[in-house]
Amino acid sequence: MINWFKLAKRVSVFELTQLPWTDTPCVELPTSASPFVFGLVKPKVIIPSYFKHLDLAQQQTLVYHELVHIRNNDHIAIVIWRVLSCLFWFNPFIRKMEMAFISAMECRCDQITVTTYKLKKVGMLPLYWLS
Question: In what residue span(s) does the Peptidase M56 domain sit (predicted)?
Fold first, then answer.
């Protein structure tokens, strides 16, 4: 919970980056983490500092993947699973179900991203392997 507040404070300090292919606000943070969605009410795509060094196709693929997460409200589902995991900390199966849910969610998101945005599958690793 404390990390969430620290991240919220960092995100509010950095200015929003507008990418030409999306209206969703993006924030570039000096981190080496993979891109992710942050925020419940007004989600933003957090992009790492290495993002600008990727070629355009890779940038679009990563951002499209995060946009699919936003469209499917996956960021809200993750928070719900985290709360359940905290409430039922004594039950090891809740944590295992959470991990299975996240894995299935990432696979679904990869599939939707590839089919919706007509991305080529040949030679591409699943997007969740990049995270």
Answer: 34-116
Distance CA 25, CA 18 (A): 6
| Closest by Cα among 36, 25, 24 to 106 | 36
| Residues whose CB falls within 8 Å of the CB of residue 63, separated by 6 or more in sequence, listed in order | 19, 21, 22, 26, 35, 45, 47
- Tens of pLDDT, residue by residue over 90-129, are 999 999 999 999 999 999 999 999 888 887 654 444 554 4
Whether pLDDT at 4 is above 80: no
Instruction: Report the alpha-carbon angle 32-46-97, nearest 5.
Output: 85
Q: What is the pTM of this model?
A: 0.80
Q: Where are the alpha helices (DSSP H) in the chain?
A: 2-13, 56-71, 74-87, 92-116
Yes or no: say if 25 and 45 are a contact pair by the CB < 8 Å rule: yes
CB 30 within 8 A of CB 50: no
